[in-house]
Amino acid sequence: MDTFEAVRTLLAVRSYQAKPVPDAVVRRILEAGRLTGSGMNRQPWHFIVARNPETLKSLGALASSGPYIAQAPLAIVIATDKSRFAVSDASRAIQSMMLTAWADGVGSNWVGFGGLDKAKALLDIPAGLDVLAILPFGYPARAVGKGRKQRKALSEVAHLERYGHPFE
Questions:
Q1: In angstroms, rounded to a whole number, what is the distance separating the alpha carbons of residues 5 and 1?
Q2: Which value, in Å, is the radius of gyration of the alpha carbons in the chain?
Q3: Mind listing the pLDDT tens digit for each residue in 145-165?
Q4: Which of 13, 87, 116, 151 has the fewest Cβ atoms surrounding its Cβ within 10 A?
């Protein structure tokens, strides 16, 4: 799948098959995050791969917006340092990882945006890092309507030369 098609069709997936995600796909997902650009090339991220069912169950229990993590065959926890651009840089890496997974037929969703401090103790994450997100990954449990999104029209969000002049 080409890049635009992945962006056009990417949907949040919250229900997964029990089928494991192959190591080669997990490596591609991680590489996509690692290779993402960052401010001043600081690379403020750490990616913790969780596959153990008990760990996944615990992550699902501590993330109020993502109990479905417990049923995923894989989750990647994103921890960042406390540098100025860490959140925006890690957000870029997360999007790269989700698009790469999607291109390989693996669904995901962003769980949390902070408020995940309990994951630090569970995963031995040092106090100097923040947990930004948990990304569960897996093959979608049911067919997803690729590309069926409800989005504003381009003319409502894109402007030509000055705000209020729709780019059509």
A1: 6
A2: 17
A3: 766 788 899 999 999 999 999
A4: 151
Give CA–CA dist 93/100, Å, rounded. Answer: 11
pTM: 0.94
Assigned token pair, 120: 């630090």
Residue 19 near residue 73 (C-beta atoms within 8 A): yes
Helix (H) or strand (E) holding 154: helix 154-157
Contacts of 18 (CB under 8 A, 6+ apart): 73
pLDDT tens by residue, 27-36: 999 999 999 9
Token reading at 153: 């029209």
Query: Which residues, at least 6 apart from 150, have a Cβ–Cβ distance to it below 8 Å?
Result: none
Q: Which residue matches tokens 């003319």? A: 155
Sign, CA torsion 5/99/137/84: negative
Alpha helix stretches (DSSP H) within 11-136? 23-34, 53-62, 86-103, 118-123
How many C-beta atoms lie closer than 10 Å to residue 54's C-beta? 9
